[in-house]
């Protein structure tokens, strides 16, 4: 493994954690009101494109980072939909 591949893997690991603090915070406070659904959908779509690219060229750092981001962005989308429904139910 050369220095550039090591840097790619380190970047992938760091990028993978991008959404983790937001997922943890959203889960703890049980509210996703501050999150933009538009932003989450754009992140989800861009992640799919990056995964296709990563699979086509078999770029492991791209696959690692975007697989993690896919899971975390889907989790935030789930929270955005689920917590909104819970809040509406509690208010009614």
Automatic annotation (TrEMBL):
The chain crosses the membrane at residues 35-53, 59-79. It comes from the Bacteria. InterPro entries: PQ-loop_rpt. Its main location: membrane. It is a multi-pass membrane protein. It is found in: Membrane. GO terms for cellular component: membrane. The keyword Cell membrane does not apply. Keywords: Membrane, Transmembrane, Transmembrane helix. This is Glutathione synthetase. It comes from Roseivirga echinicomitans.
